[in-house]
Amino acid sequence: ARFSEMKSGAVGAGLVVLLLLRGECMRGVPRRRRYTPDWESLDSRPLPEWFDKAKFGVFVHWGVFSVPAWGSEWFWWHWKGEGLPQYKQFMSDHYPPGFSYADFGPQFTARFFHPDTWADLFLAAGAKYVVLTTKHHEGFTNWPSSVSWNWNSQDLGPHRDLVGELGNAVRKRNMRYGLYHSLLEWFHPLYLLDKKNGCKTQHFVRAKTMPELYDLVYRYEPDLIWSDGEWECPDTYWNSTEFLSWLYNDSPVKDEVVVNDRWGQNCSCHHGGYYNCQDKFKPESLPGHKWEMCTSIDKVSWGYRRDMAVFDVAAEREIISELVQTVSLGGNYLLNIGPTKDGLIVPIFQERLLAVGKWLSIHGEAVYSSKPWRVQLEKNTTSVWYTSRETTVYAIFLHWPENGVLSLVSPVTTSATQITMLGIQKDLKWSTNPEGGLLIYLPNLPLGTLPVDFGWTIKLTGVK
Ligand SMILES: *[C@@H]1O[C@H](CO)[C@@H](O)[C@H](O)[C@H]1NC(C)=O
Ligand SMILES: *[C@@H]1O[C@H](CO)[C@@H](O)[C@H](O)[C@H]1NC(C)=O
Ligand SMILES: *[C@@H]1O[C@H](CO)[C@@H](O)[C@H](O)[C@H]1NC(C)=O
């Protein structure tokens, strides 16, 4: 008996009774729907609710690339894969001849890594989930993987289980925990062999990818698997649908786990759980499928780099604007920082994260658990974004109008309409606009007395 259609309680109860009468239900417990290892079946799984409600997460790129900490987390590839002159020069200028990428390993000490300090910061940033790189394309695992011999954080470098330690700290604070995992490894000999065979052999997948993914799920029971590094081979090479059907049917996280869409060539934006599409993807209009924008405070790199300049760092207004636009368009916003090799988060990243947290402490009501409204972007402006919660509508505006009067075209007022501003106690004065919509008279407060400097929210009840 397969329970593919069990939707509402009433229908479900009816089916249970029916099946009990027909003796098709083992011990009276309806069997869960089972997914088959194909995209049609896997794509039909409803996304666990927590993810859409969460809206905001922190992404952490940390690994051996945090040791050279120069250029970007793609350091090894730029140096040895592409042979870019500036990377070769950097190495010959600063390291002895023959120094290999593996020689950076012991310097990844994580000496000052205090998972509780990180988790406190992410919580104060307003994050509802945290995603850590368990293994980037370099292949170094931030947990004691038994299939990453001498290239993991227990045998080398920190001599600690970084994935486990951060997970405990994050969960203690009721945030969800996500694991980034790269399917490919740039220079793994078995991967190179499979690639030479046109992705027709699976030596690497059998020896590495699959054992790692199952190990991560059993050890850490992640809420989210953020897959990456899929683009060189088809999903049939990666056995993605086999893994996902196990994950959804039989794994210890089958009910709550969420995955993204990077599970094989041409898969992203088409198959999987929610969609990332490309890095920093930003749709123009409301997509038909749950999505997440991932982006980095350092606009140039995901991993920490010492050559970061202040101009490369996203400003608070850019971050808030993107968060607002993303949530209004039904997405989640995953904002990245790269810690240093010794486990510190530099103050400029702390400052940006805390700014988001401060903004969310006042405007969270318009963000968390919100749904897109019937209009996303106010027709008459480029800077008023709507969200909603049940019958309440939120208009988040990013520019303070010069005359102090905000014009909204889309909401239709009724005799019950009430208008307030988040962070301000009293109701606002408003009137209907003869040209359509309404005019809202913003509070005339002395400079510096508004609860935030940028991005304000009008709360409308009793509108249509
Ligand atoms: C991939 O899945 C197929 C079909 O279940 C199986 O025969 C094969 O051994 C799997 N390969 C790996 C590397 O797990
Ligand atoms: C992915 O798309 C490209 C371009 O459309 C195509 O050449 C390639 O064969 C596709 N790969 C797979 C695995 O479908
Ligand atoms: C649209 O915006 C312009 C410029 O801010 C303003 O003059 C006009 O009244 C607005 N139109 C409506 C219908 O609100």
UniProtKB/TrEMBL annotation:
Domain of life of the source: Eukaryota
Reaction(s) catalysed by this chain's protein: a neolactoside IV(2)-alpha-Fuc-nLc4Cer(d18:1(4E)) + H2O = a neolactoside nLc4Cer(d18:1(4E)) + L-fucose; an alpha-L-fucoside + H2O = L-fucose + an alcohol; a neolactoside IV(2)-alpha-Fuc-nLc4Cer(d18:0) + H2O = a neolactoside nLc4Cer(d18:0) + L-fucose
Protein's UniProt keywords contain Manganese: no
Task performed by this protein: Alpha-L-fucosidase is responsible for hydrolyzing the alpha-1,6-linked fucose joined to the reducing-end N-acetylglucosamine of the carbohydrate moieties of glycoproteins.
Keywords assigned: Glycoprotein, Glycosidase, Hydrolase, Lipid metabolism, Lysosome, Signal
Protein location: Lysosome
Site-annotated residues for May be important for catalysis: 294
Protein name, UniProt field: Alpha-L-fucosidase
Domain Glycoside hydrolase family 29 N-terminal per the UniProt entry, residue ranges: 31-365
GO molecular function, one term: alpha-L-fucosidase activity
Gene3D superfamilies cross-referenced by the UniProt entry: Glycosidases, Golgi alpha-mannosidase II
One GO cellular component term noted in the UniProt record for this chain: lysosome
Species per Swiss-Prot/TrEMBL record: Suricata suricatta (Meerkat)
Organism classification: Eukaryota, Metazoa, Chordata, Craniata, Vertebrata
Family in the record: Belongs to the glycosyl hydrolase 29 family.
Domain Alpha-L-fucosidase C-terminal, first and last residues per copy: 376-461
The protein's assembly and partners: Homotetramer.
Record-listed E.C. numbers: 3.2.1.51
GO biological process terms held by the UniProt record: fucose metabolic process; glycoside catabolic process; lipid metabolic process
